């Protein structure tokens, strides 16, 4: 496939919003996910609405076998934009997290991102053009109890992207890391969290379409780290300026209140 945008985790939420946005601009798509029916329905809808080609790859990217399958499937494709979006959250505290779940979240949100990025970057460098968008979270700045591994992998993604930006200084390849706050997607339900998505303080949920719109606007301005929306920006600033002990207290209290609301 030529003129393609590869989006991992485009079955729903942010990945699907990216898929629609790039299809609207006329790009062909390669999208991945595990929920076969849902992703195929969305792919058909996108093809009919925007008259682009959509290749669907049903794959679990939280392990080496799945990643190898994806790399093999895309080896002849010309990918102009890569969106490393697939991700999930975990509910338990670290001490009670199953080893398998730890391995899966670290593989999906670190190994798969790095390996896929390197593989596609090598081809982009030959043509000296391309865009790599990595999805992080405001949780990368504000680590909270019960979110330790998730936040740590998302912080890894920020460093990876900023480092890459500097390494690619002399090229025409753009990189961006997007760090949203709460988004109204399947994310919380998939992690077994029972959330009430009412707009209240920091618990305001943005739409995935709004996040994509803000991120693409920032990308065009050349902003490497995109923190979309006022809530995520406040979180980032607060965490940066607060003394650490005060931040820990706020984070612990916030988590207790949130867990009550989310029935954790
Ligand atoms: N929602 C939020 O509040 C929020 C806030 C900040 C950042 N984010 C980040 O935004 C990204 C997208 O999440 P979302 O909010 O749009 O949630 P979502 O609707 O649950 O989408 C997550 C996507 O990742 C895919 N995925 C999950 N595990 C996978 C695996 N093992 N292998 C392959 N694909 C997998 C899912 O597809 P299948 O289930 O079909 O596999 C789905 O398409 C994630 O990286 C998340 O960390 C979300």
UniProtKB/TrEMBL annotation:
It is found in: Endoplasmic reticulum. Gene3D superfamilies: NAD(P)-binding Rossmann-like Domain. Keywords: Oxidoreductase. Its main location: endoplasmic reticulum. It comes from Kineothrix alysoides. Belongs to the short-chain dehydrogenases/reductases (SDR) family. Pfam families: adh_short. SUPFAM superfamilies: NAD(P)-binding Rossmann-fold domains. CDD domains: SDR_c. GO terms for molecular function: oxidoreductase activity. The lineage of its organism: Bacteria, Bacillati, Bacillota, Clostridia, Lachnospirales. This is Short-subunit dehydrogenase.
């Amino acid at each position: 496939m030529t003129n393609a945008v590869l989006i991992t985790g485009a079955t729903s939420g942010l990945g699907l919003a990216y898929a629609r946005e790039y299809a609207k601009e006329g790009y062909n798509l390669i999208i991945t996910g595990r929920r076969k029916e849902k992703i195929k329905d969305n792919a058909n809808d996108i093809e009919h609405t925007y008259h682009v080609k959509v290749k669907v790859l049903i794959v679990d990217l939280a392990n080496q076998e799945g990643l190898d399958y994806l790399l093999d499937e895309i080896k002849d494709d010309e990918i102009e934009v890569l969106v490393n979006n697939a991700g999930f959250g975990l509910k338990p505290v670290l001490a009670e997290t199953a080893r398998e779940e730890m391995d899966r979240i670290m593989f999906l949100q670190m190994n798969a991102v790095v390996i896929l990025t390197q593989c596609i970057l090598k081809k982009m460098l030959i043509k000296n053009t391309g865009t790599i968008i990595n999805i992080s979270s405001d949780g990368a700045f504000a680590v909270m109890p019960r979110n330790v591994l998730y936040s740590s992998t998302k912080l890894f993604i920020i460093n990876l992207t900023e480092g890459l930006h500097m390494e690619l200084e002399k090229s025409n390849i753009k990189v961006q890391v997007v760090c949203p706050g709460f988004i109204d997607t399947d994310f919380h339900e998939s992690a077994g969290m029972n959330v009430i998505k009412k707009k209240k303080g920091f618990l305001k949920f943005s739409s995935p379409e709004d996040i994509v719109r803000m991120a693409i606007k920032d990308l065009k301005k050349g902003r490497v780290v995109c923190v979309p929306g006022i809530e995520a920006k406040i979180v980032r600033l607060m965490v940066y300026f607060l003394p650490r002990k005060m931040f820990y207290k706020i984070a612990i209290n916030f988590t207790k209140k949130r867990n009550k609301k989310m029935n954790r």
